[in-house]
Specification:
Length: 498
Amino acid sequence: MSILTRRRLLRDAALSATATAGAGLSAAAGGAGLAAATGVLTAGCDSPPGGDPTAGPAPDRLRFPRDFGWGAATSAYQIEGAAKEDGRGESVWDTFSHTPGRTRNGDTGDVAADHYHRWADDLDLMRDLGLGSYRFSVSWPRIQADGTGKPNQRGLDFYKRLVDGLHERGIAPMVTLFHWDLPQALQDAGGWENRDTVHRFADYADAVFRGLGDRVPVWLTVNEPKTVVQNGYLWGHHAPGRQDPDAAYLVAHHLQLAHGLAVRALRATGHDTRIGPALNLHPCYPADDSPAAAAAAKLHDGYENRLYLDPIFTGAYPADVLAHLGPDSRMVRAIRDGDLATIATPVDLLAVQYYTPLYLTGDRNTVTRWPTSEADWQQIYPQGMYDILTRVTRDYGPVPITVTENGLPCPDTLGPDGTVDDAGRIAFLRDHFTAAHRAIADGVPLESYHVWSLLDNFEWAEGYDQRWGLVYVDYPTQRRIPKASAHWYRQVIRDNGL
Ligand code: FCB
């Protein structure tokens, strides 16, 4: 980015931060936002780690609370590979990625980062990084090839080894039950449009809880239900590749119900471990000062955030979204007595995944306000982290929060000296950690933070082109090379701050 472009963006940043301050946050938060927003633009892939010289004085060193959990995250289909081993069945992502034209370069997760075979070395890597927490997901088709019936012991054993290996290295496991790899056999029976899948999920969750026991201190139910709804059923660029709005929101309800039943299944085991949902939240802002833009941002916030937060934390779907969907929508017709009580079964924590803000025009189109990353949907805006964390605490009470995903894809290359210089990722993480620190100072009960991702991996429809890892994966050899950001993160963890 040229210095002129950067200056223009910085000016826009300051202007927009002023608009944000007027758009709902308290005066104190808005003021802090203005200061932070000037740091925002230091965070693209081409930025130096020292930040932009026009970004103002560096803040004082930041210390995080004692026992703050520094972590990293992955998911099964994105890293494991070993697609046909030890009785694993097929998932919708096997089908989707093997369908010509669905993923970039026709990439699939057949081998991915080969973590299924390299897990022990990967755990050593995590220990060397100093991670206190590691978030990964269990592959449903490894536990139940067709999504039903007796659990596959070989599948469970893999995850047992992982959990034990983490404990041996002093790392707390955080396990997601569902990170999008629905068994294909269940998809063939209607997938998440079929209410029966919800009960299959509860059975699967029970099998995993009993199989891994109480050595998993934190469980997460469904990863980003919104992404399944939007990418999988509205836009069709994720599995199962549908474009059917009416089906999409029915799927939303069933994913929420699946979440609630999983919480109940954990309680029924009697294990004294914690559980919560993993939601990707997008702060929604009006793109201009018009009342129409304000109204559009509010409704959009309903679809992006409240549709998932409200039923879990208040026991009701947002009225504006239900009214907008209309009484004849498949979702509205599918809600049965007792469903909302199930969805609202009390949870122990909320996992927040933050990547990008959204800006809405009066006609409910989105516009791009900030520089985007290699992922064109991601605008780089650390203030959004602060805004979403404080908003959740303000609107839903002091439920403990963990950030389970936040990160940046960069065009990382292995240099001739064998290092990977991802200065832009360091700047991005520094700005987002700083925003999270401010949220904690302002009362958000944030207990841990997981960078997406530990390793470069299969980024869904983008295949292997986008690299999100702290650790570079040389796919032809599967060699792992910690990037500059991994070395930097190790120091952050050591200092418990930056
Ligand atoms: C999130 C997904 C995760 C990864 C990141 C970049 O939406 O949960 O698997 O793809 O985006």
